[in-house]
Amino acid sequence: MLKTGAQYIRSLQDGREIFIYGEKVTDVTTSPYFRNAAASVAMLYDFQSAPENAALMTYETEDGDRANRIWQLPKSYAELVERRKALEAWTELHGGFMGRAPDHVASCIAGMNMGREVFEAYDPARARALADYYRYARDNSLYLTYVIINPQADRSKPANEQKDPFIAAGVVDQDAEGLTIRGGKMLATGGVLAHEVFVTCIQPLREGEEPYAISFAIPMNAKGLKILSRKSYEKQTPNLFDNPLASRFDENDAVLYFDDVKVPWDRVFVNQDTRMCAKQFHATPAHVYQNYQAQVRLMVKMRFLMGLAKKTAETNGTIAFPPVVQTLGQLAAQAGMVEAFVCGMEAKGHMHGEYYIPDAHLLYSAQVLTQQLYAQVINTMRDLAGGGLIMLPSSVEDFANPEIAKYIEKTQMSPVTDSEGRVKFFKLAWDAIGSEFGSRHAQYEMFYAGATFVTKNHSFRTFDWANSTGMVDRMLDGYALKSEIAKL
Ligand SMILES: Cc1cc2nc3c(=O)[nH]c(=O)nc-3n(C[C@H](O)[C@H](O)[C@H](O)COP(=O)(O)OP(=O)(O)OC[C@H]3O[C@@H](n4cnc5c(N)ncnc54)[C@H](O)[C@@H]3O)c2cc1C
User: Fold this and answer.
1) Where is the HpaB/PvcC/4-BUDH N-terminal domain (predicted)?
2) Which among 2, 11, 73, 264 could bridge 49 via Cys, Cβ 3.0 to 4.6 Å?
3) pLDDT averaged over the chain?
4) Are 312 and 447 within one domain?
5) Rounded distance from Cα 36 to ligand 1 centre (Å)
6) DSSP conformation letters of 16-81
7) How much distance in Å is there from the Cα of 43 to the middle of ligand 1?
8) Where does the pLDDT of residue 358 fall: very low under 50, low under 70, confident under 90, or very high at 90 and above?
9) Residue 475 domain-assigned (yes or no)
10) What is the C-alpha separation between 191 and 184, in angstroms, rounded?
11) Are 101 and 135 in the same domain?
């Protein structure tokens, strides 16, 4: 069943325990720290369930119901592209600023479900749990987030050798009903807004780390689950005009602590198996699908950033300067590169059983390069803007005071807009690239898919080295020292 925005908002009122600013918040939808972000997610739900968007955003499941395309399991290139168009349309609603909108983890679980045979070979009961969960989440329009990284503490030691063996979430007990989980996980982006969380470990685990080699999904209001929120940018932003992005799209990031949380067997996908923990991502299409979604999102975000860059130059009257045109051309080429990667990984995809999967190496190439690219793009945009990002009145209250408003009109000028338009535009640009919200985005784009050594290893692992070294070998085979000496 497709949820509407109102149904989504109601479904969040489930008594989950969020800790922030010394308080416990149990209703996200009315909290000044989270309510606007919840309303933004509700907007996504309304868009998916609007009758006029049915063909774009939904597909018919095997039961004859309609589900959001984020759950679709494409069986051809054409279906993959159809699904991507839905992701693009959804992402445009937030300009790519909600990194863990519901399409991210849905893509992961859909990809995992496309590789069910890997779970069948591991344990048919766990495979059944995964297949049932996929259908349950799809049929109930669930918003899932995930925590797949152990908290930073001492990265030189495995989880079982940390000062506290339960700094990272692991199994403390198992019985006929399921597992009991204790410990922490980073970093549940969207955790306060999601219905459920998928919990596992994507970091390679060694012998001795079996208790941490788990994979399961539970509701955000599960007994014993504590959501430890970072500061709220939404709360710090007094109004929409001054922080048009932070005030609406602060999806939040939270450490999760599992205070002896009970996980029933029908929600357990991997139990204390280090090899299977890695295989669930890399032997199935899960890792490729979740990160393909992330590149589609980035493609849309780059388009939005290009709009900001061009308007920056227009607003400052620098648009006709040849070096500025070249800078915009360079930025546009970088945006084009992200799009080329998305189109390339789709076109170069392959069948995994009955499903069509984007090309893994082009995906990992995109990840490695875009992790570096984002900071470069932001820096170039700051360079284009100069002090205009800072030469701004403190808040809408300044406009509301006639004495100050008079001087704003005298000092905020542009060849293409009035003083209000100039301030409005630069406040948006600053929120995207410079405010605390914008700065968190730079960190997000650098790390959401793992540190650079991780993505570079994926690129190394998936490149067709045999083809390249074969070419070199054929070249080397075409000549020899002996025959060259013979020519002397
Ligand atoms: C804004 C934001 C949102 C996030 N959202 C989520 C989320 O929704 N779900 C989730 O599960 N995770 C999330 N994460 C966590 C993210 O997956 C991790 O930040 C990422 O995997 C890197 O892990 P780390 O932060 O522990 O960094 P580390 O692995 O500790 O790496 C930090 C740096 O230390 C060095 N380093 C560490 N280990 C090595 C090594 N073995 N070899 C070489 N160099 C090393 C490198 O310089 C590296 O860049 C989020 C992170 C951020 C910043």
Assistant:
1) 4-270
2) 2
3) 98
4) yes
5) 28
6) -EEEETTEEE--TTT-TTTHHHHHHHHHHHHHHH-GGGHHHHEEE-TTS-EEEGGG----SHHHHH
7) 30
8) very high
9) no
10) 14
11) yes
* 238 has pLDDT over 90: no
Residues 253 and 382 occupy one common structural domain: no
Residue 351: Cβ within 10 Å count? 11
What is the token pair recorded at 87?
A: 């992701």
pLDDT, tens digit (0-9, with 9 covering 90-100), for 361-383:
999 999 999 999 999 999 999 99
The preferred substitution site among 109, 447, 453 for testing ligand 1, maximizing ligand atoms within 8 Å of CB, is: 447
Largest CA distance in the chain: 94
| % of the chain at pLDDT higher than 70 | 100
pLDDT tens sequence across 135-188: 999 999 999 999 999 999 999 999 999 999 999 999 999 999 999 999 999 999
- CA–CA dist 161, 222 (Å, integer): 28
Task: Give yes or no for a contact between 216 and 263, defined as CB atoms under 8 angstroms apart.
Answer: yes
**The predicted structure's pLDDT at residue 165:** 93
What separation in angstroms does the CA of 269 have from each of 55, 167, 169, 224, 302?
33, 22, 16, 20, 36
| Residue 253 beta carbon below 6 angstroms from any ligand 1 atom | yes
pLDDT of residue 369: 98
Between the alpha carbon of residue 125 and those of residues 133, 197, 241, 268, 329, the distances in Å are 12, 21, 53, 9, 54
Give the residue-averaged pLDDT of 101-119. Answer: 98
Ligand 1 pocket, residue 442 CB under 6 Å: no
What's the pLDDT at 110? Answer: 98
Co-location of 341 and 390 in the same domain: yes
Residue 89 Cβ < 6 Å to ligand 1:
no
98 lines ligand 1 (CB under 6 A): no
Domain total of the chain: 2
Residue 188: CB within 6 Å of ligand 1? yes
Distance between Cα 300 and ligand 1 center (Å): 24
Hunting for tokens 């067709």 — which residue is that?
464
Token pair belonging to 364: 């990992």
pLDDT of res. 103: 98
Q: Which residues are annotated as a binding site for FAD?
A: 152-155, 189
Q: Output the CA 144–ligand 1 centroid distance in Å.
A: 20
Same domain, 325 and 371: yes
Q: What pLDDT does residue 351 have?
A: 98
Residue 487 in any domain: the answer is no
Which atom of ligand 1 lies nearest, measured to the CA of 146? 9
| pLDDT of the residue at 1 | 87
Q: How is 112-172 classified by DSSP, letter by letter? A: HHHTHHHHHHH-HHHHHHHHHHHHHHHHTT--EEEE-BPPPS-TTS-GGGSSSTTSB-EEE
Q: 151 CA to middle of ligand 1, Å? A: 9
CA of 389 to the centre of ligand 1 (A): 30
